[in-house]
Design goal:
This protein is α/β, with parallel strands linked by helices and 339 residues long. The chain has helices at 38-43, 93-96, 137-140, 143-156, 171-183, 195-203, 217-225, 241-247, 269-273, 289-298, 300-303, 316-324; strands at residues 2-8, 11-16, 27-35, 56-57, 61-68, 80-83, 86-87, 107-108, 120-123, 128-130, 164-167, 188-191, 208-210, 230-235, 248-256, 278-281, 307-312, 330-334. Strands 3, 5, 6, 9, 10, 17 and 18 form a 7-stranded mixed β-sheet that branches. It has a 6-stranded parallel β-sheet with strand order 13-12-11-14-15-16, sandwiched between helices. Strands 2-1-4 form a 3-stranded antiparallel β-sheet, with no helix packed on it. Bound molecules: zinc ion (2 copies). One zinc ion (ZN) is lined by residues 88-89, 91-92, 94-95, 103-105.
Length: 339
């Protein structure tokens, strides 16, 4: 089968590899669409900002049809499914306490075990979720990033009228924007240096969109909140905690979402303590996958404008460059060719 294989630092080869050999109860999914994620971009920097095992097939945001399912898997042949790509060990202290997203021994599809940037992928049966017949493949491929965002948006506890600042308007920042809007948060200020992404934030319904390079985030927040600061800040980049603390009001909350292993910021603990700022960090999805699929099924039009490019698998690198440049929001790879 054809696959995008991570070879070494910054190198992915589009090549032919043997079909996957399912182990135990594994089902095999024929991939219909696989999203490129910000973490894929970080895995491909030199040196990598996210680890990826050499000779592993990339891709962790994928959907497809089950083409192999042993009876013991209890998965139906031909089922349309979305895949939860982070396999918990189910044995460590955190798994046993129900905190599977904090598992000490995660196996991440697309980084430590072969993922979905290929024609086929073998997956443990409890990692697949059936997709509603009415939900198209492309929109369904947003399930994984949306499930991660939902893990965060639950903590943001958005109510109608919650003033909000979102730092970064990449795919994750924009998904947070959609969720904040659905929850009635207002005003929603988005800060993003890339002009194309600022346009996307406007199109997706941000109240105020600013360029942090030429404008002061704090001034924009003061203007919009009568000098109080916002109630909720989402750092969707993972390196902007200091800006978040600077923009949130006393008693407000900063949500750190983005993952950048190399980012480091300086904060003054007194700014946090004297104003009782809550700092919340969320890592991947935790029980939010079914809700993500439900929201995508019920409100496809709220989410699918974020899919800007659908490319054949062979155009993997075009997809990476399109996302790196900020020209694309969510790029999908489709092994059977673009629609
Ligand atoms: Zn992802
Ligand atoms: Zn575990």
């Amino acid at each position: 089968m054809r696959a995008a294989v991570y070879v070494s630092e910054g190198t992915v080869e589009l090549t032919t590899v043997p079909d996957p050999t399912p182990q135990g109860d594994d089902v095999v999914v024929k991939v219909a669409a696989c999203g490129i994620c910000g973490s894929d971009l970080r895995a491909l920097t030199v040196p990598p900002e996210m680890p990826c095992q050499p000779q592993t097939i990339m891709g962790h945001e994928f959907v497809g049809t089950v083409v192999h399912a042993p009876e013991s898997s209890r998965v139906e042949m031909g089922a349309r499914v979305a895949v939860l790509p982070n396999i918990p060990c189910r044995r460590c202290a955190f798994c046993r306490a129900g905190k599977v997203n904090l598992c000490s021994n995660f196996v991440h599809l697309g980084a430590m075990r072969d993922g979905g940037a290929a024609e086929l992928c073998a997956v443990p049966p409890d990692m697949v979720f059936t997709i509603d017949d009415g939900l198209d493949w492309a929109t369904a491929a947003l399930a994984e990033p949306l499930a991660c965002v939902l893990n965060g948006s639950r903590r943001a506890n958005w109510q109608p009228g919650t003033s909000t600042l979102i730092l970064g308007a990449g795919p994750i920042g924009l998904l947070f924007l959609v969720m904040a809007r659905l929850a009635g948060a207002a005003p929603i200020i988005v800060s993003e240096p890339h002009p194309g992404r600022r346009e996307w934030a406007t199109r997706m319904g941000a109240s105020i969109v600013i360029d942090p390079v030429s404008e002061s985030v704090r001034t924009a927040v003061d203007d919009a909140t009568g000098g109080l600061g916002v109630e909720v800040v989402v750092d969707a980049v993972g390196s902007l905690l200091d800006s978040g603390i600077g923009a949130v009001r006393p008693g407000g909350n900063v949500l750190v979402f983005g993952l950048n292993q190399r980012a480091a910021v300086t904060v003054r603990p007194a700014d946090i303590a004297s104003r009782e700022i809550g700092i919340h960090c969320v890592y991947i999805a935790n029980g939010t996958f079914p809700l993500a699929l439900e929201l995508l099924t019920r409100h496809p039009e709220a989410f699918n404008p974020l899919i800007t490019h659908q490319l054949p698998l062979e155009e993997f690198w075009t997809g990476i460059e399109t996302m790196r440049s900020g020209d694309g929001v969510k790029v999908l790879l489709q092994p059977d060719g673009a629609p």
